[in-house]
C-alpha cells in the first residue's frame, strides 16, 4: 500500500518580532512551494529517505529529530509493521522562515496516517505536529504548523491563538531567498536588547504591532496600495533594529525599483527571505525577474 501527502510552505506577511511582545502576526500559506511525503513497503525498512540522507531513522541528522519522533509515535509505539520507507521530497529551503520543518511534520503525519490507516483526529494531528516542531525549534509558537495546514491567511497572537482570515486580497506576493539562513535566536535577542534600552525603541517596536493591525484591515478591504505602504514602513522599523542585512536591503531595493508597491524582510531577519507586493501578475513577473539575478530562489504567490 502506498501513501502520499503534499504540504506547503508559509511566509510571514507582517508582525515578526512584534508578535513576541503580544502583537498579531499575519502569515501567508505559500501554496506554490511544497514538500511531498511518500510511504511505501520496503523489506529493508524502516528507512528515511531525504535529500542528502537515506538510512535508518535513528541515524538521521539532527534536523530530522522531529520526523524520528513521529516515526516512534505513529509506527513503533502503535506496533505497526516497520518494513516501510518514508521519502521526503522537499522544494522548501530550510532555515529561511518558510516553515520547512512544519511542512515535513505535517506531510509525515498525514502519509503515515493514510498508510497505516490510523484514523488520527485533526486535534491529534495538531498535538503531534506541534510536539515535532518543539523538538526542532525549542518551544515553538505553533504559527508555522497552523499556516502549513491552512489555505487562508492566518492571524496569530501568542495570548489568543489563531484566526483564519477569509477572502482574497487580489494581489501578488513575490518571495525571494537571500540564500542565507536566518538566525531567529540571535535576531530576537538583538531586538530585545534594544527594546529594553529605551522607551523610544519600545514605542517604535510597538508601532510594528499597529502596522500589523492596519495590514489585517487593508487585507479585508483589499487595499493593496495601503498594504504595500505598510510593508515599507515595517521594513524601515525592522532595519532600524539591525535585523536587515546588505543582501536583504539589496533585494528590497531591487523589488521596489522593479515596481513592487512594498517590500520587506519576512521572519526573523539576518538572512531568510524578502517579500514584495504587487497589484498585478505582470508586475509580479517583472519583480520576480529583477530579483532572480540576485536571489537564490524566487517564488510568486497569488493572494
Ligand atoms: C520568526 O520567524 C518570527 C519572530 O517573530 C520570532 C518569533 O515569533 O518567535 C522573529
From TrEMBL:
Key words of the record: ATP-binding, Cytoplasm, Kinase, Lipid biosynthesis, Lipid metabolism, Magnesium, Nucleotide-binding, Transferase
Top enzyme category: transferase
Listed name of the protein: mevalonate kinase
Similarity remark: Belongs to the GHMP kinase family. Mevalonate kinase subfamily.
GO molecular function, one term: mevalonate kinase activity
Any single GO CC term annotated in Swiss-Prot or TrEMBL for this entry: cytosol
Species of origin: Galliscardovia ingluviei
Pathway listed: Isoprenoid biosynthesis; isopentenyl diphosphate biosynthesis via mevalonate pathway; isopentenyl diphosphate from (R)-mevalonate: step 1/3
Compartment(s) where it occurs, according to its Swiss-Prot or TrEMBL record: Cytoplasm
PROSITE patterns for this protein: GHMP_KINASES_ATP (PS00627)
Entry-linked InterPro entries: GHMP_kinase_C_dom, GHMP_kinase_C_sf, GHMP_kinase_N_dom, GHMP_knse_ATP-bd_CS, Mev_gal_kin, Ribosomal_Su5_D2-typ_SF, Ribsml_uS5_D2-typ_fold_subgr
EC number: 2.7.1.36
NCBIfam families: mevalon_kin
Pfam families: GHMP_kinases_C (PF08544), GHMP_kinases_N (PF00288)
All residue ranges annotated as the GHMP kinase N-terminal domain in the record: 79-145
Amino acid at each position: 500500500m502506498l501513501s502520499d501527502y503534499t504540504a506547503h510552505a508559509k511566509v510571514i506577511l507582517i508582525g515578526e518580532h512584534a508578535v513576541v511582545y503580544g502583537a498579531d502576526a499575519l502569515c501567508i500559506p505559500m501554496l506554490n512551494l511544497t514538500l511531498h511525503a511518500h510511504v511505501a513497503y520496503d523489506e529493508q525498512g524502516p528507512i528515511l529517505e531525504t535529500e542528502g540522507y537515506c538510512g535508518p531513522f535513528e541515524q538521521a541528522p539532527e534536523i530530522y529529530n522531529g520526523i524520528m519522533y513521529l516515526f516512534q509515535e505513529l509506527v513503533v509505539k502503535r506496533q505497526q509493521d516497520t518494513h516501510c520507507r518514508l521519502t521526503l521530497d522537499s522544494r522548501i529551503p530550510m532555515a529561511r522562515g518558510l516553515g520547512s520543518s512544519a511542512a515535513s511534520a505535517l506531510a509525515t503525519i498525514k502519509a503515515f496516517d493514510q498508510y497505516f490507516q490510523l484514523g488520527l483526529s485533526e486535534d491529534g494531528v495538531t498535538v503531534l505536529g506541534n510536539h515535532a516542531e518543539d523538538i526542532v525549534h525549542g518551544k515553538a509558537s505553533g504559527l508555522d504548523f497552523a499556516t502549513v495546514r491552512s489555505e487562508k491567511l492566518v492571524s496569530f497572537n501568542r495570548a489568543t491563538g489563531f484566526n483564519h482570515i477569509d477572502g482574497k486580497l487580489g494581489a501578488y506576493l513575490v518571495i525571494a531567498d537571500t540564500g542565507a539562513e536566518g538566525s531567529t535566536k540571535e535576531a530576537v535577542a538583538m531586538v530585545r536588547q534594544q527594546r529594553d534600552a529605551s522607551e523610544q525603541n519600545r514605542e517604535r517596536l510597538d508601532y510594528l504591532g499597529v502596522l500589523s493591525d492596519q495590514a489585517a484591515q487593508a487585507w479585508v478591504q483589499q487595499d493593496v496600495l495601503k498594504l504595500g505602504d505598510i510593508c515599507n514602513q515595517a521594513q524601515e522599523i525592522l532595519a532600524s533594529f539591525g535585523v536587515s542585512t546588505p543582501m536583504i536591503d539589496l533585494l528590497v531595493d531591487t523589488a521596489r525599483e522593479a515596481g513592487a508597491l512594498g517590500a520587506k524582510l519576512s521572519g526573523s531577519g539576518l538572512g531568510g527571505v524578502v517579500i514584495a507586493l504587487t497589484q498585478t501578475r505582470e508586475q509580479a513577473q517583472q519583480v520576480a525577474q529583477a530579483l532572480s539575478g540576485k536571489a537564490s530562489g524566487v517564488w510568486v504567490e497569488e493572494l
